[in-house]
Design goal:
The protein is mainly alpha-helical and about 160 residues long. It has a single domain, classed as Orthogonal Bundle (Arc Repressor Mutant, subunit A), CATH 1.10.10. Helices cover about 60% and strands about 5% of the residues. It is built from seven helices and three strands. The chain has a three-stranded antiparallel sheet. α3 crosses α4. The chain is elongated, with a radius of gyration of 19 Å. The chain starts with a helix and ends in a 22-residue tail after the last helix.
């Protein structure tokens, strides 16, 4: 590799690291200031758009496994942000609803990092969006990460999504 290529690779790796650090910082701030993880906040926001929702519907809506959603809802119930009740029609189903305390916390937390990103990304021209998307898909391929399952929740391994 020549010096120019070395410098480009280095700059790109630094940019990736900055993205990871921004995600970590946001997750830590959310956890320290509000006692919530990113996935917990996403779950609360999703529940707030419905009067009540089942675990199955919620897991599909936020692209997390049912087991993870169940763990998160148990922790949020302990904090009195949601209620979990068995469905009257189907005892296998658990319905989740937001409590008043849950509504209050949603009014105080800052927007999620992915909301800020989505807002800014949406304002780009279509060709630029496609270029960025294509470039990131290439990076995923270059890192042999195509088979890694991921949701649209921006967290890193340093914060457990089910942690309370």
């Amino acid at each position: 590799m020549n010096n120019t290529n070395d410098e480009r690779c280095r700059n790109f790796l630094i940019a990736l690291r900055k993205i990871m650090q921004a995600i970590d910082r946001h997750s830590i701030t959310l956890k320290n200031k509000f006692g919530l993880t990113g996935p917990q906040l996403i779950l609360l926001q999703s529940v707030s758009t419905d009067k009540q929702i089942s675990v199955t519907q919620l897991s599909k809506k936020i692209s997390l496994s049912q087991a993870t959603v169940t763990d998160i809802t148990k922790r949020l119930e302990k904090k009195n942000y949601i209620t979990r009740r068995r469905s009257l029609g189907d005892k296998r189903k658990t319905n989740i609803a937001l409590t008043e305390k849950g509504k209050m916390i949603l009014n105080t937390v800052p927007p999620l990092l992915q909301e800020q990103f989505t807002d800014r990304f949406s304002k780009l021209e279509r060709w630029e969006q496609l270029m960025i998307e294509s470039s990131f898909e290439r990076v995923v391929s270059m890192m042999s990460a195509e088979n890694i399952e991921a949701s649209a929740i921006m967290i890193t391994g340093s914060v457990d999504p089910t942690e309370s």
